[in-house]
Design goal:
This protein is mainly alpha-helical. The protein has helices at about 5-15, 20-50, 50-55, 60-70. Helix 2 (about 20-50) packs antiparallel against helix 4 (about 60-70).
Length: about 70
Amino acid sequence: MTRAMNTSALMLLNASPRLPLIAALAVRFAAIVTQWEQRRRSRINLGKLDDRLLRDVGLTRHHADQEVSRFFWM
């Protein structure tokens, strides 16, 4: 399981060891899509930061642009 999987998904998977395979796959898929969306939103917001704020978090414009240009699944 990925770290980003939300706690309700983990509770659902752990609550019933007899969870049907299709349900377990659906929960896993939803968690992965949620992680992708979080990455996408984070990268969009990173791209909006000005140079001063990037310096505050220890990034250069070049490094921020590299991160923003990555695919959402990476």
